[in-house]
């Protein structure tokens, strides 16, 4: 036993350093792969193999020592194992027999188990199939419901179903074929819905354009009703003011009719909202908004086109009504739709339309030559502006176009009034108007405040004016109303001053000029000239009435009208025209008097005997003057009558003096002067009588009719005077001959000569008094020659 121990010790001592690492690795159960790899890498596999062999020998020695050490126990263990082996064999035989019996018993159960497992598998497959079918049935029902909605044009629920299928069912559909079909059909259905909605939307676009004119007409009609209500209120207010001014307490009443200014023109926007909503659900809202804007822009451009085949007067109402309807729809869309239109887009549409409308109006106004046509267009355009301003649109540029055409309108209106007044004056006979009925009196007199009192006169009533006065007043009143109609509801709030300017222009440039033209160029008789003068006086009084009417229509307080220097300039112009009419009248009278005065040429200026009565011509003149003053008394006011009488008598006196100065009259004698004296006495008597009978004495004038004959009377008195040389006495001349001129007296006195026959034939009968008068006359002639 000691020999092997020594041998192992020697071997360990000899190889302990080599295989220490290898033994430690084996003892720790480590992997020898790295050691083997290292040995091969170092090129010493033999050393490793040698070491491994040493390890094997060491283990064998250890096993051998272990066996020697436990030999007895090993023998016993082997014996026990042999016994165990026998027992195991017996157990094996027993188990084999039991197994055979068990297999015989369990074989039937195994068949049942296989059947059970197969049934469980079938159940599982069926359950899965049922679940798959449920999903497919739900998807199919949704698809069927979607198809029904699409067929019934209920696109929104159809899109909701498609969205539900896409989100919750499409990815979970177990059948690939079904999923593929659905996945393919969803875009097709959406495209179909989009096309269908677009088709319905296009139909709506056509429909809304077709009813836009009706929408605009209805809205403009509402604006017209509102304006009419305002005008009625102003009319009631003016009536109340007029009654208040006249001392009658006005009666106020509540207005039972109320116009709802907030009433909205109704039209169906549901198709638009539906299309917008469907496109929003489809995720193409921006595309639809752009499509809507572009289509509406194209419709607007079509609406803004003017047909040249129809006059603008006939087409302007449909034109503006169509545009009004368009923008009323757009205003409603902007307010109610969410994101379909922006304010900038609507403003762009409105700016484009405004530019076109301004261009159209300016062009059409430039070609319009009738004031009424301009007024009709302007009234409708202002209603159009009022309608759209209520919907938030800015219409000031449109009103500026109307204001810019204001002068042209009034020029056309003045031209029409000029023609009307010309026709009125041309058809007037200038005779006092005879009114037979009360309604005629109210229509021609009271309506223009031409009555002298508030008492209704007895009929027939002879007015102090001719028919042209009320007719002209109607023209002026119509002018005021038309002017107010044009100026109202425009860009200017206070247009009274503008109206006053145009009213002055009508009264001065049209009415007054027509009257002056009639006065200066017409072949007027005396009564006609008188009537024209009387008409002008009446028209002068109407200036205040027309100004008051203008103020009422402009809603201007009457206190402003009644201020000093607030009246019409035409009033002063008419005053001047009255003087022109009186001068024309006097010219006519003078012409007629000249015809009678021409009969003085038939007077025998060298008569042998003094006439006992007045000459024939003076009878004609007195008859004419009587007719003249009687006519003037009926037509003219007293001051005008006075002017006519004074003018006629002055002319007669001047003409008598001019006759003595005439070169055709070479000489005259005392008998002719006596005849002229008789003429003057007759004329003076007539003048005194008519001055008193006509009531002219109430005027308190400085000069009476008789005074108008003073020059001819003083001349005749001088020629008949016994002391004519007293004329050279300043005191006497100032007292008795102040109206005579030296030169005229000198010329006339040179013509005063008695005939030679008479002078020589009556020489013996001439008394001292006659000689004295002759000597005095000769002295006067000589002194006048020296004085001149």
Biggest sheet details: 2 strands, antiparallel
* Spans of at least 5 consecutive residues with low confidence: 1-18, 246-263, 755-766
The level of helicity is over 70%
The share of residues in extended strands comes to under 5%
Radius of gyration, whole Å: 67 Å
The structural class is mainly alpha
Number of helical segments with 4 or more residues: 28
Number of strand elements = 2
SSE order and pairing:
Layout: H1 2-15, H2 20-28, H3 33-42, H4 45-69, H5 71-151, H6 155-169, H7 176-245, H8 270-281, H9 285-303, H10 312-336, H11 343-367, H12 371-389, H13 396-404, H14 406-427, E1 434-435, H15 438-444, E2 461-462, H16 468-487, H17 496-521, H18 526-553, H19 558-561, H20 569-597, H21 616-635, H22 638-661, H23 670-693, H24 710-720, H25 730-736, H26 742-751, H27 756-761, H28 768-787
Antiparallel strand pairs: 1-2
Helix pairs in contact: 5-6, 6-7, 6-8, 7-8, 7-10, 7-12, 8-9, 10-11, 10-12, 11-13, 12-13, 12-14, 14-16, 14-17, 16-17, 16-18, 17-18, 17-20, 18-20, 18-21, 20-21, 20-22, 21-22, 21-23, 22-24, 23-24, 26-28
């Amino acid at each position: 036993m000691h020999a092997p121990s020594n041998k192992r010790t020697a071997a360990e001592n000899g190889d302990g350093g080599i295989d220490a690492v290898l033994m430690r690795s084996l003892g720790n159960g480590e992997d020898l792969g790295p050691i083997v790899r290292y040995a091969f890498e170092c090129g010493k596999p033999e050393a490793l193999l040698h070491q491994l062999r040493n390890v094997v020998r060491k283990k064998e020695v250890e096993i051998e020592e272990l066996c020697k050490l436990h030999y007895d126990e090993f023998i016993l263990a082997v014996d026990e194992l042999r016994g165990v082996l026998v027992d195991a064999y017996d157990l094996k035989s027993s188990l084999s027999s039991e197994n055979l019996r068990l297999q015989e018993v369990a074989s039937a159960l195994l068949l049942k188990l296989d059947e059970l497992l197969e049934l469980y598998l079938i159940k599982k497959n069926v359950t899965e199939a049922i679940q798959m079918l449920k999903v497919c049935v739900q998807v199919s029902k949704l698809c069927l419901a979607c198809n029904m909605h699409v067929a019934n044009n209920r696109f929104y629920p159809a899109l909701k179903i498609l969205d539900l299928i896409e989100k919750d069912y499409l990815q979970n559909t177990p059948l690939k074929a079904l999923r593929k079909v659905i996945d393919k059909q969803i875009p097709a259905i959406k495209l179909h819905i989009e096309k269908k909605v677009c088709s319905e939307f296009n139909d709506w676009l056509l429909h809304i354009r077709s009813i836009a004119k009706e929408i605009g007409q209805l809205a403009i009609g509402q604006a017209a009703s509102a304006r009419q209500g305002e005008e009625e209120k102003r009319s009631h207010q003016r009536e109340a003011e007029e009654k208040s001014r006249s001392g009658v307490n006005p009666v106020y009443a509540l207005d039972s009719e109320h116009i709802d200014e907030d009433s909205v023109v109704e039209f169906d926007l549901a198709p638009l909202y539906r299309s917008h909503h469907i496109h929003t659900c489809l995720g193409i809202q921006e595309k639809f908004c752009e499509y809507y804007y572009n289509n509406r822009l194209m419709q607007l451009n079509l609406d803004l086109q003017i047909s040249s085949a129809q006059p603008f007067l006939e087409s302007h109402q449909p034109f503006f009504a169509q545009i009004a309807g368009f923008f009323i729809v757009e205003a409603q869309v902007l307010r109610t739709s969410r994101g379909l239109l922006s304010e900038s887009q609507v403003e762009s549409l409105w700016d484009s339309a405004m530019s076109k409308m301004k261009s159209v109006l300016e062009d059409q106004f430039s070609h319009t030559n009738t004031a009424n046509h301009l007024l009709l267009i302007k009234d409708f355009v202002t209603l159009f502006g009022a309608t759209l301003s209520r919907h938030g649109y800015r219409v000031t540029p449109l009103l500026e176009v109307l204001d810019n055409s204001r002068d042209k309108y009034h020029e056309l209106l003045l031209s029409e009034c000029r023609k009307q007044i010309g026709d009125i004056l041309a058809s007037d006979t200038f005779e006092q108007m005879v009114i037979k009925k009360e309604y005629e009196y109210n229509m021609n007199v009271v309506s223009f405040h031409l009555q002298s009192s508030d008492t209704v006169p007895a009929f027939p009533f002879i007015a102090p004016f001719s028919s042209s006065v009320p007719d002209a007043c109607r023209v002026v009143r119509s002018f005021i109303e038309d002017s107010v109609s044009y100026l109202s509801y425009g860009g200017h709030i206070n247009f009274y001053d503008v109206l006053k300017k145009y009213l002055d222009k009508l009264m001065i440039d049209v009415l007054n000029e027509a009257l002056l033209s009639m006065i200066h160029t017409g072949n007027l008789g005396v009564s006609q000239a008188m009537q024209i003068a009387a008409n002008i006086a009446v028209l002068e009084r109407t200036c205040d009435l027309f100004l008051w009417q203008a103020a009422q229509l402009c809603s201007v307080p009457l206190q402003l009208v009644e201020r000093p220097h607030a009246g019409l300039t035409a009033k002063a112009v008419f005053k001047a025209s009255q003087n022109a009419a009186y001068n024309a009248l006097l010219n006519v009278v003078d012409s007629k008097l000249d015809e009678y005065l021409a009969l003085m040429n038939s007077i025998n200026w060298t008569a042998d005997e003094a006439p006992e009565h007045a000459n024939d011509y003076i009878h004609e003149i007195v008859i004419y003057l009587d007719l003249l003053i009687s006519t003037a008394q009926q037509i003219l006011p007293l001051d005008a009558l006075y002017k006519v009488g004074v003018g006629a008598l002055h002319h007669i006196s001047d003409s008598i003096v001019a006759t003595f100065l005439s070169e055709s009259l070479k000489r005259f004698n005392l008998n002719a002067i006596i005849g002229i004296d008789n003429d003057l006495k007759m004329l003076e008597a007539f003048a005194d009588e008519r001055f008193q009978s006509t009531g002219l004495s109430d005027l308190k004038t400085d000069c009476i009719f008789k005074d108008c004959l003073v020059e001819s009377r003083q001349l005749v008195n001088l020629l008949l005077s016994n002391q004519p040389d007293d004329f050279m006495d300043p005191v006497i001349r100032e007292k008795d001959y102040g109206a005579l001129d030296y030169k005229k007296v000198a010329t006339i006195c040179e013509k005063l000569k008695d005939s030679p026959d008479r002078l020589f034939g009556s020489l013996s009968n001439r008394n001292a008094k006659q000689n004295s008068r002759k000597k005095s006359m000769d002295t006067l002639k000589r002194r006048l020659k020296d004085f001149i």
